[in-house]
């Protein structure tokens, strides 16, 4: 296994790149901007929608403001998806490169170790994981469906990879430039030495990578998992913190903050600070 900073990542001529969809983010922006334009139009027309439907002017402007703020967040994500750093896996028949730094943190130093690579022949087996994530809302449970790809390497020491993954979690935002860190971790290392790759939003999908690898490795049957975060308050403190970390590893920071609020009776700002400190010390 080799490790790379941004400048050392192999550039192969024939490779399949797995990245987050640019089209999805652009379509989301178009929908948001269209809704904002409509709400502003309704406000300027005194709330008139049709002859039979009127809409309160203040609500039209309020919803337009909320959607505008949301559009700024989506715009930031969309811009990041058009940068060269928007990729998680680069596959070729001779080499596989996996990047554990989120494309949203492309403003971090290019000299940091942020990717690793190996020959496809080093993989022992792969499988798809379909996970149902259960969290609680104010009045009901919310089910989210995630897809991961697990891979197991043959006789490989993953201690160095584990150290680099921890370093990435604990890394602070740069002293200069954009002072923000996105808690998005596409790669995790399971207790049994399995490398897990989050595939939600990646194009092409996990099935394509499985097909590419099938001539080299054993493909195991798809596994369905159910992870319940609705009864975290009944666990020990260590188990509670582990549940919060699991949510962060799945890119669910808002849910992690909500769990911290509910379990420890914290205000939102304090819960957010607690969650960020927890992931950095893990």
Query: Which range best describes the helical content: under 10%, 10-25%, 25-40%, 40-55%, 55-70% or over 70%?
Result: 25-40%
Task: Give the amount of beta strand, in percent.
Answer: 15-25%
CA distance, first residue to last residue:
24 Å
* Strand order in space, largest sheet: 1-5-4-3-2-10
Order of helices and strands: EEHHEEEEEHEEEHEEHHH
- The quaternary organization reads as single chain
Q: What is the overall number of helices?
A: 7
Shape: globular
Q: How many β-strand runs?
A: 12
Q: Detail the poorly predicted runs.
A: none
Structural class assignment:
alpha+beta
The Rg value, from CA coordinates, equals 21 Å
Main sheet? Answer: 6 strands, antiparallel
What number is the mean pLDDT? 88
Would you give an account of this structure?
This protein is of the alpha+beta class. The chain has a domain at 234-282. Helices cover 38% and strands 22% of the residues. The strands form two sheets. Strands 1-5-4-3-2-10 form a six-stranded antiparallel sheet, covered by helices on one side. Helix 1 runs antiparallel to helix 2, helix 5 packs antiparallel against helix 6 and helix 6 (253-264) crosses helix 7. The relative contact order is 0.14. The mean pLDDT is 88.
């Amino acid at each position: 296994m080799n490790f790379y900073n941004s400048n050392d990542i192999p550039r192969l001529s024939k490779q399949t790149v797995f990245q987050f969809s640019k089209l999805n983010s652009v379509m989301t922006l178009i929908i948001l901007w269209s809704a904002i334009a409509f709400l502003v139009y309704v406000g300027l027309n005194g709330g008139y929608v049709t002859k039979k439907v009127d809409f309160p002017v203040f609500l039209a402007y309020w919803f337009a403001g909320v959607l505008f703020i949301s559009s700024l967040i989506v715009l930031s994500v969309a811009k990041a998806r058009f940068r060269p750093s928007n990729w998680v896996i680069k596959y070729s028949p001779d080499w596989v490169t996996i990047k554990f730094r989120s494309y949203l943190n492309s403003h971090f130093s290019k000299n940091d170790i942020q990717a690793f690579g190996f020959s496809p022949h080093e993989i022992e087996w792969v499988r798809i994981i379909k996970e149902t994530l259960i969290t609680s809302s104010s009045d009901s449970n919310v089910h989210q469906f995630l897809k991961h790809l697990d891979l197991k390497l043959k006789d490989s020491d993953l201690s160095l990879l584990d150290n680099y993954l921890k370093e990435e979690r604990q890394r602070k935002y740069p002293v200069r430039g954009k002072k923000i860190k996105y808690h998005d971790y596409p790669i995790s290392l399971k207790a049994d030495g399995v490398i897990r790759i989050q595939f939600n939003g990646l194009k092409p999908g996990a099935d394509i990578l499985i097909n590419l690898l099938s001539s080299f490795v054993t493909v195991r049957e798809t596994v369905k998992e159910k992870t319940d975060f609705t009864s975290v308050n009944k666990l020990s403190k260590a188990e509670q913190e582990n549940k919060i970390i699991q949510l962060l590893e799945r890119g669910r920071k808002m849910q992690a903050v909500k769990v911290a609020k509910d379990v420890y009776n914290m205000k939102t700002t304090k819960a957010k600070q607690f969650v960020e400190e927890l992931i950095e010390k893990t």
